[in-house]
Amino acid sequence: MPWPDPPEGLIFPPFAYIPGKNSRHPENFFEDIKASVTRDICPSDLQDTAAFKAGLAYLDAGYFWECHEVLEAVWMRTEDPSPEREMVQALIQLANAKLKLLMDKPRAALRLCDMVVAHLARCHPRDGVLGLGIDCVARRTEIARTDAIRAL
């Protein structure tokens, strides 16, 4: 399953926030994106929201804190338990792992990669959740794990 395209008109922040290294974005910077996840949205439609697509685009572009920020809105609308919740949590933890690498915390990144793998193991059906293939996210996690091992 291919990684979805970013939502049309997505605005990237002027910089990637890295705790301890630079300042945070204004409090309401992501509100319009997060507002795409409405109270009445069906879990099966979450993959079509600007928040979900922006989260993936931010993850790809190295905006890891920002990815977590917008995907949290998606996560909050998932059912507990559900494959959708596990997938969104896996993506959030992958972004956190990659952020920890930028913060020079490879051991924390490795622990987060383990968490991603555990979330993915609970995703059923195995062929994909929210339009994402489990294997695609797993491959990205293994790249992060390799980067963390090299940084030790």
What report would you give on this structure?
By secondary structure, the chain is mostly helical. It has helices spanning 31-34, 50-61, 64-75, 83-102, 106-121, 134-151. It is built from six helices and no strands.
Q: Which key phrases capture this entry?
A:
6 helices; globular; mainly alpha
Précis, in short:
By secondary structure, this protein is mainly α.
How would the blueprint of this fold be written?
Layout: H1 31-34, H2 50-61, H3 64-75, H4 83-102, H5 106-121, H6 134-151
Helix pairs in contact: 2-3, 3-4, 4-5, 4-6, 5-6
Measured distance between first and last alpha carbons: 33 Å
Instruction: Give me the strand/helix succession.
Output: HHHHHH
Number of strands: 0
Averaged pLDDT:
94
Task: Find the structural class using helix and strand composition.
Answer: mainly alpha
Percent helix, as a range, is 40-55%
Number of helices: 6
- CA-based shape: globular
Strand content: under 5%
The radius of gyration over CA amounts to 15 Å
Question: Quick one: biggest sheet?
Answer: none
